[in-house]
Structure formats: structure tokens, C-alpha cells
């Protein structure tokens, strides 16, 4: 009745931006990401409590954070036949305080795996991915390691909208992602609100969704060939296009800061000088640099030279796993 799981975050190379169903978190397009080590979130779930209790990083969760966790627990209870009762959940991330990386992907992936095990449901990456998706879209890509593709699916109930692993973390161990923290502040517009505004008001939205879907098989081919230059170029143009559709929203939405553009510009110059380094950018000002093991130190140095207050160097990470040690 009690189980604990550990999961890693992921960063998308072909981004997810925009939902066709806000409640079920169903996307308009497919996306592709790399699971990242060493950062992780560990979560313990036990059914059979007096009331639902949700504790994240030492605080009792409230509001939408709590609601999203309860949603996932509710779906597990339904799948297990509805006889499990309230649950206690405790979750802890080992992210550096200023990682600037959303821990929600790792958090909901760990929750999905732990809650299914605590409910006695068989380990099933597909079912865990659908479940994690109900908490946070990108979390469905953190159930497995390496490169995961979130297939948008066609069904209205979301049963075919989950992530599948395309290549394990062992496929390309030399690949590196270097997170450049330019600004530690909470972003002003959460991705969930930014996406909604973009879908509803950006005249470029349909073009974005069509293009991202078409880029995905190209990204898979480049990963297959371990073509860093090709993948770097694809990841940059996909990030630019995601941000371009947000710029065109009404009111306009920009997650970039002047320092973000400064760093991006600097990367171009560095590439001309022979350093293989590219960027991707989520819904915030902090770029994630894509490079290889031989250049991660150079990537960190150039991020710091462009104003990064913190840098986190990451390698391809593995699957979400069950642990025998519990948090309570
Ligand atoms: O799943 P959410 O609500 O954290 O949204 C993630 C959106 C991006 O990080 C910008 C892109 C992505 O695919 O992860």
C-alpha cells in the first residue's frame, strides 16, 4: 500500500506548446525530449490515510498544486476499482535551489509511478505516462529515460496520448545539456496560461503546430545518426518558432530577457569559432545549451561570461524507478 519512486526532469528539443483539451492536457502537436540526470524528484505514496495529505519539499501543497496531485491520485483510485481511500503523498526534489528548471515533470512522473505501485497496479510505462500527463503535460515524457516522444494521440479521452522511448540514455552518452540560469525569479506567465493565450489569440498558432509535428521525425533521424550540428540547428529553430507564436499572441507574450538574446547571439559567434553549442528555451529566460562532453566546460564558461548566475551540467538520464527506501 506504500511505494516510492524517483524520476528525472526532461527538456524538449521539439517543444509542446498548446492544448487541444485543457482538462485532460491533450496537446495539439507531438513533442520530443531528453530525460536529464542527475537532478531528480523522489515521491512516496501510501493509500489508507484519514484524509488526502500532499506535502511537497517540506510544505503542505495548496490550491492548484494540490488539485493536480489529487487528480492523479483520483485516476489511480478509479483504475484500481475505487476502494483505496485517501492517500498521503510526500515529495522531495534534489534540484539546486536556483536550477530554473521546472520540477513538475519529474514530480508528476515520480508520483504516477509511486501511486500505481502503491495501488498494486502492474508497472506499465504507457499507463504511467498517461497518468503523469494528467498532472503536467511534459511529465508524461519523464517516465522513461533517454529520448522520449509524446505522441499527441487522436482520441478525445486521451488514452492514446502518452510518451514512448525512442532511444535509451545509452544511445548517445556524450550528449550534454547545460542549463544557464540568467534569472532566478519565478516566471510571470505560467506555461499553462501562456499556452492558452497563444492558442486562443496567436495567428501563427496553426503554423507552429503543423511545423512542430513535421520536425519531430527529422529530430529522430538526427538523433539516430548522432548528428549534433543537425540536432542543434533543429532545436534552435523549434525554440525560435515556439517563442515566435507566443510573441504574436494578444497581448504579446515574451519570455526572453535582454540577457537571453545576448547569450543566444554569443552562441552564434562561438560556433563560427568552432565550438559546437546550440540552445533551446522553455517558457522562461534561461537557455539550455546543447553540446557534447568535450565542450561542456566551454559551454559553462560562455554561459557565465554572458551573465549566468548558476549553471547546471546534465547528462542523459534514465527511467523513473521504484525505490525500497520511503520518505515516511
Ligand atoms: O507541461 P508543462 O505545463 O510544464 O509545459 C511545458 C512547456 C514547455 O516546457 C515550454 C515545453 C515542453 O515541451 O516541455
TrEMBL record:
Which principal EC class is assigned to this enzyme? Answer: lyase
The family database entries (Pfam families) matched by this protein are listed as: MDD_C (PF18376), MVD-like_N (PF22700)
Q: Which EC number applies?
A: 4.1.1.33
Instruction: Please name the source species.
Output: Stigmatella erecta
Q: Which residues form the Mvd1 C-terminal domain?
A: 178-296
Which keywords, in A-to-Z order, does the entry hold? ATP-binding, Lipid biosynthesis, Lipid metabolism, Lyase, Nucleotide-binding
A single Gene Ontology biological process assigned to it is: isopentenyl diphosphate biosynthetic process, mevalonate pathway
Molecular function per GO: ATP binding; diphosphomevalonate decarboxylase activity
Name of this protein: diphosphomevalonate decarboxylase
The UniProt record lists the Diphosphomevalonate decarboxylase-like N-terminal domain at: 7-163
> Mind telling me which Gene3D superfamilies this protein's record contains?
3.30.230.10, GHMP kinase, C-terminal domain
InterPro entries the record matches: GHMP_kinase_C_sf, Mev_decarb, Mev_diP_decarb, MVD-like_N, Mvd1_C, Ribosomal_Su5_D2-typ_SF, Ribsml_uS5_D2-typ_fold_subgr
PANTHER family referenced in this protein's UniProt entry, alphabetically: DIPHOSPHOMEVALONATE DECARBOXYLASE (PTHR10977:SF3)
Gene Ontology cellular-component terms listed:
cytosol
Q: Which family does it belong to?
A: Belongs to the diphosphomevalonate decarboxylase family.
Q: Where does this protein have coiled-coil stretches?
A: none
